[in-house]
Amino acid sequence: MTQTERTLITIVTICAGLSAGVFFAFSTFVMPALNKLRAPEAIRAMQEINRAAPNGPFMLVLFGPLIPLAWLVIALIRRSSGATAYVAVGTACFVAGLLVLMAYHVPHNNALDKIDSTGSGAGKSWRDYYGGWTAWNHVRTLAFTAATALFTLALRTD
Predict the structure, then answer these.
(1) Smallest Cα–Cα separation from 2: which of 70, 83, 61, 66?
(2) Which residues contact 23 (CB under 8 A, 6 or more apart)?
(3) pTM
(4) Each residue of 70-117: pLDDT tens digit?
(5) CA gap 139, 99 in Å, rounded
(6) ∠ CA 144-150-153, rounded to 5°
């Protein structure tokens, strides 16, 4: 493995780990804490979180690794190094986490943003949102955690 490849894997490992940590925090204490609030408060809080989340640093950590990952997979497959399988499967896990985010969380967050937190259906809206959102967040947490582990193993190989 070249020094450039090792550096890129280190960067994507850090990004995957940071993403896994953010999503782990939501699964283990942010969402459970919000769920203890009254529905209008929980909805307003989550609406603000969802508005704040797409910021430069978070988006860079979340989506920035895609180009180096594509390059790494191609470069490592050409040489079939010992790290190739770890990087390829880690990349698949990373992309799976992004797909869950884009296919499930973004549309549900956008729908929640349109909810009137003081409306009569706020309680049902929050319950419907909370259950599915949290379950799928566990999935993306596992995907990014697996990616982190696999990229770490790639660094230990070669």
Answers:
(1) 83
(2) 97, 137, 140, 141, 144
(3) 0.93
(4) 888 887 778 777 888 999 999 999 999 999 999 999 999 999 999 999
(5) 11
(6) 145
Q: Could you give the CA distance from residue 82 to residue 63 in angstroms, rounded to a whole number?
A: 26
Question: How is 5-73 classified by DSSP, letter by letter?
Answer: HHHHHHHHHHHHHHHHHHHHHIIIIIHHHHHTS-HHHHHHHHHHHHHHSS-HHHHHHHHTTHHHHHHHH
For the record, the structure tokens of 31 come out as: 């969402």
| Residue length of the chain | 158
CA distance 148 to 90: 7
Q: In the numeric block, which tokens belong to residue 29?
A: 């204490």
Q: Which amino acid is it at 51?
A: R
Query: In this structure, which amino acid lies at residue 102?
Result: M
Q: Tokens standing for 100?
A: 């869950």
Cα distance between residue 20 and residue 71, in whole Å: 22
Angle between helix axes 3-25 and 56-63 (nearest 10 degrees) is 120
* Residue 82 contacts residue 12 (beta carbons within 8 Å): no
Task: Specify the residue for token string 């596992």.
Answer: 142
